[in-house]
Structures are given as C-alpha cells and as structure tokens.
Amino acid sequence: AQSVTQLGSHVSVSEGALVLLRCNYSSSVPPYLFWYVQYPNQGLQLLLKYTSAATLVKGINGFEAEFKKSETSFHLTKPSAHMSDAAEYFCAVKGSQGNLIFGKGTKLSVKP
Amino acid sequence: DTEVTQTPKHLVMGMTNKKSLKCEQHMGHRAMYWYKQKAKKPPELMFVYSYEKLSINESVPSRFSPECPNSSLLNLHLHALQPEDSALYLCASSQAGTSGRSDTQYFGPGTRLTVL
Fold it and tell me: Residues of A with CB below 8 A from B88's CB?
C-alpha cells in the first residue's frame, strides 16, 4: 500500500527565505508523486509531479522537488518565499486504483 | 484549458432536504472523482467514475448518491444529510481513467456545504 507523510503541519518563513516542505513516501511499487497547493476556500492546484522521467522536477511559481529513492523523500523547495506563497501544501502518491493518497498537509506562513 | 467547474459554490441545507452538486469538465477526461475535505484535513476520496462507470466507492453512506450522466458531467445527490457532513466537496478529473497512474488530477474549486 502507498502512503505519504508530511513532516511539520506548519512551517513559517520570512519573505525571501528558502522554503522547504518535507514529504516522505512509502510504496511497494515505483511511486508517482505529486505536490498540490490549496489557497483558502479554493480547490487544489498542481505544483509539480514525479513520474520517473527525471529526479529533479520543476513546477510552477518557482517550486521544485527532488525525488530521492534512497531517502524515500520528495521534498518541495523554493529558493525565495513570496507573500503569495502562503497556503496549504499537500504531498500525494497515486494509489493502485488511480486515486490520490494525500499527506496531512503543511500550512506555509510567510512573514514580511 | 484545464478547468473543472463546480456548482453551486456554497450550499446550505437542512437535514431533510434533497440537493445536488454538479461538476463539469470539457477536457475529454475519462475519470472523474468526488472528494470530501473537512477543515484543516486533506481531501478524502469518496467516489471514482472511470469511463462513466462507478469504479470506486469508499464505503460512503447511502445518503450520498453519485451519478455520471455522460463523460463530461458528474453529480452528487444529497439526501438526509447530517451536520457532520458539512465540508468542502471537491470534484476532480483525469485523462486516461483510473489506470493512468501518472495522470494529473485536475480539481474544481469545490462546493462549501453546510448542513443545519
């Protein structure tokens, strides 16, 4: 069975600082991994996804993530946080039936 | 265009009401999903339709009844709901059906449901 664990339910950074949101996965088969962002009272927007083509995946809004099999990790990073990045971030893995299995989410706050 | 639309945006209903949520996509996607999201929680899968057939029902109570009239439209019929059913209901779609493991799921903005 597949699962993901997001470390840290709340991360706070200063504007311009590095953003690092952690996600570890568990999967008995090669995983397909996703990061989504959710702004208040909105749906989920795809930031990026890993489908085994490349271990470093670049997404929208300056985000990227690196797949590390040895560490079973898929952490999300952004070099310089912007106020508009404040949101909830979900890591997810594709289940065997095509459904998404989400982590519990990390709320990112950005201080001016 | 990667848009999934949902109506209504907000819905308030009593426990004896019958209402429906609607989801539409025109991307030619063959899988459509209903998720329920409680406050400060991740989305939880409720139903999946693949090629207009119900393929996954995550043990959802019968007061929730999904319907997929055609490949572009997905409904969720609500009847005799409880206050604990208040949540954000999200619809999503993906291209190749549930067998497409690398497919992206595109989400709608959700319907905020309040049951009084």
Answer: 41
> What are the tens digits of pLDDT across the range A52-111?
878 899 999 999 999 999 999 999 999 999 999 999 999 999 888 788 999 999 999 999
Using CB atoms, pick whichever of A44, A46, A94 lies closest to residue B101.
Answer: A94
Say how many residues make up chain B.
116
Q: What is the DSSP string of chain A?
A: --EEEEE-SEEEEETTSPEEEEEEEE-SS---EEEEEE-TTS-EEEEEEE-SS-SEEE-GGG-EEEEETTTTEEEEEESS--GGG-EEEEEEEE-TTS-EEE---EEEEEE-
